[in-house]
């Protein structure tokens, strides 16, 4: 598939990319090369091939999803201007 300079200019405008007019033929050729490669990929027979998550067959590492308090209450409250009973103390805002 061949892309002309007018189409390349329209694509650049839609993508909000400023392209100087003298660079439009190069951009059009690059778009044409990309579309030719996509056409080559469409010719590949993929019947019976399962989609892959990664190019290397491996399972994702998992950890136990356990709820904790973080174990660092003292560090969290160390720089608080006012902390009481293990919590941040703030001024009352609702009467």
Q: How would you describe the overall organization of this protein?
A:
It is a single chain. By secondary structure, the chain is mainly α. The protein is 36% helix and 4% strand. It is built from three helices and two strands; from the N terminus they run αααββ. The N and C termini lie far apart (70 Å). The relative contact order is 0.08.
Strand content: under 5%
CATH topology of one domain: Histone, subunit A
**Overall 3D form:** elongated
Number of strands: 2
Number of helices: 3
Tell me roughly what share of residues is in helical segments. Answer: 25-40%
Class per helix and strand makeup: mainly alpha
Spatial sequence of strands, sheet with the most strands: 1-2
Using the 3D structure, state the CATH architecture of one domain: Orthogonal Bundle
Class of one domain in CATH?
A: Mainly Alpha
Q: How much is the average pLDDT?
A: 89
Low-confidence stretches: none
Could you describe the largest sheet, including whether it forms a barrel?
Answer: 2 strands, antiparallel
Order of helices and strands: HHHEE
Radius of gyration: 29 Å
Terminal residue distance: 70 Å
